[in-house]
Please model this.
Amino acid sequence: MAVHPGSGACHDSRVNEANTAARHSAQSDHDAASSTGAAPTDTAEELNKARAGRPSTDEFRQFLASGWEMADASVTAVAAAPYAAQRRRRLSEAFPGMRIVVPAGELKTRSNDTDYRFRPTSDFAYVTGLGADHEPGAVLVMEPVATGGHEATLYLIPPSGPGDEGFYADPRSGEFWIGRRPSLADFAAMTGLRTAPLRELPGGIRLSAQPTKAVRRALSEMRMVKDDYEIQQMRDAVNATIAGFERVVRELPRAIDHKRGERVVEATFDAHAREEGNAVGYETIAAAGDHATTLHWIRNTGQVRRGDLLLLDAGVELESLYTADITRTLPIDGVFTPVQRQVYEVVLEAADAGHAIVAPGVKFIDIHLAAMEVIERRLTEWGIVPPMDDPASKLYRRWMVHSTSHHLGMDVHDCDAAKRELYLDGELEAGMIFTIEPGLYFKANDLTVPAELRGIGVRIEDDVLVTHTGGENLSAALPRDPDAVQAWMARAGHRAL
Model:
């Protein structure tokens, strides 16, 4: 997904552990109520009790608490648990004698009393091994111990089951509303961590001994090199995404016939992502015609017309929260026109130039520079790059304004808090996974290019693993060569011609 505007290493903190921890202190009454059986007083239920119409007698409460068959208590460790333990050890070594706090994040209100589906922060998932959607409000606290290292405790909101009024009264944590949630003992078995109720979170946590940015930066830099578990998750996410692209191709005839065909494309892929994983890893870009020249076209309200190109930038996020990020630009009729092919082949040449140099020890920025050398040379040969007084102006970047690569993992733009010298200027290491995604975007109203180029947008994006000897294109099974793309679309059942 072409989101990185330049450096690839953003130092703004998106996960403020200190502020989140402080909010939990204010939430203590609600947490206690949810875990002890007292009716919560600050939930959506309280705000909407006027429409609940539910009895409040002791007889009703006793009846609701009785007659429930006990659920199967067998719980096993999550697959990522041993890897998460290793990550915590590395984090402990990076901050000796300092308290470390990593929150899962909070539920976010969508509108009125409805919430968005919960997704924990990537840092929390990374150091606990937990994914899915059952830890809103959780906090991992690593306290330094006198003998060295840290003791980790996972603070969680206990589930509201039968016997707790929250079982039926709390729409955010009650089992009647959201289904069974793991108990504290379950979470301990799943993660190997000591667990405690969130109400016991030390109220004085403020991260005064450790700046938030430093923790985020350390985790980002750790996440730049994937372990064996992460690499397999990425392979699985890529394969699921490739299958989603194939489903889209089969649905192109229906998209052509629909007044908002881009929505047909989006809905097809997004449904696949929900069926095969957790969700999409980011908002799907289903951009037909001139919309393909808008880098983040996610409105997806346009028509899918014969003779145009469809730029599909999409990724499946697995239950483990690892996501792919792949782009293909497809001829809606199944066959590229000569001018579409001309643009496409330049982008493919640029991508291939980036792929060709991937190897341990190569600088990350050099992938971008290799792709841009092709873009500059070809656009200059076309005669559309004007003379430059200062070569540093790089006027050819008018038609390719984003970076060629970004790291990929739990976040579509992974490791974004890493230092520039380790990210953009850093050297590739075996285990790194990132995208290579050059593009050319000639907007319909761009009077600096020939008329036949206007309205054509092309991006080709693949997910690449650095090996000990070079690079592996994880998404190579999805055709890239224009002839192979046409043949693949025909095999996939494309009947738009």
